[in-house]
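so my prof wants the structure for this chain in the tokens format not the other one, which i didnt know existed until like an hour ago. anyway here's the sequence
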Amino acid sequence: MTEERDPLTKKVIGAAIEVHRALGPGLLESAYEECLCHELHASELSFKRQVGIPVAYKTVHIDCGFRVDLLVEGTLVMELKAVEKVLPIHHAQVLTYMRIGGFSRGLLVNFNEKVLKDGIKRFVL
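here's what i got, hopefully its the right format
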């Protein structure tokens, strides 16, 4: 799914870039999350923070602490990082949240990059 076909993702990435331009790398993830929420609100996008996702195991639903950093417009999963290097486990984390939650789009954003576009990974199921 390209930006042209996904205006929501384009708008959210624009908000993340705005935060990164103002703050740069080097802060805690929580600071970026707070500022990104401000930008999403200013862009009139609905979002929820730290959304719990229960795990369905056989016939049991288990609330075992899986939390999506941001869920934008009820459809886009965002996992925020402020790490030296994004690892394969971070990709797996986003994909698992998407699969378990039934979401088709996700973004992994690592704010600890000199140029934010180098820290953005899109996922589509």
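also thought this was worth mentioning. The radius of gyration is 14 Å.
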